[in-house]
Amino acid sequence: MIRTVLCYRCETWVMSNKIESALGAFERKILRRIVGPVNENGQWRIRYNQEGMEQYLDMEIVTHIKLRRLEWAGHTNRMENQRIPRKIMEGRIYGKTPTGRPKDRWADVVREDARQVLGGLAWKRTPLDRSDWKRRIEEVKAIAEEDEIH
């Protein structure tokens, strides 16, 4: 239930490394709280992060968010050009930009997710075949869950 609330509308997030590490820390903190302490030789101690993750048997929250974002990217990429989400995804904002480094865009983050999670697939072309895109996402989910079990 915590993951459901935490990940509400996560498909549209642009996460920095700082946010990713904060989400990972939050996840480990919650897991330690859920699984509770362990009694070793009459002494109670808080479980280590790895012990909590071993009992959880699911993929990490950041991987879950990246996969959800890729699913949404495929969905919006298959939409008709007149649909509002597709217009927003492909739209450009014109005007004066602030000085300094540009902020990360959602499309850039999705491209990086596809490179990391799916091995560099072209996320603009591949999702057009819905069944192939879904199969690839499901394969990555299965691998991620298998990695968490072992």
TrEMBL record:
It comes from the Eukaryota. This is Endonuclease-reverse transcriptase. It comes from Periplaneta americana.
